[in-house]
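Document type: protein sequence-to-structure record

Subject area: structural biology

Format: plain text, a pair of labelled lines:
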Amino acid sequence: QVQLVESGGGLVQPGGSLRLACSASTSPFSLATMGWYRRAPEKQRELVATISSGGSTNYADSVKGRFTISRDNAKNTVYLQMNNLKPEDTGVYYCNLADFLSRVSWGQGIQVTVSS
């Protein structure tokens, strides 16, 4: 059973920044594709960003130029740096892992609130 533990959420003012982290118990972490998803209030969960085992990244149009996904394979951790946050970025953010056998795991989710 893969465990994903998210951290770094919280309350921030519009224009502010947060960095989310997700630590994974899987091995080998370096072969996994990692992603961040979010669920805004009364909306379906949506893709925010993904990063492949080779470091290729993909972003939702709504966060391009503001968010950056990265990974540290030595620490089994994926990050989401979020800059210039907007109220519409508010939601529960989930870490996602797809291992080299395409098995998918989810974190428990962490709240991000952007409000003045």
Summary: The first strand starts at residue 4 and ends at 7. The two ends are 39 Å apart (CA to CA).
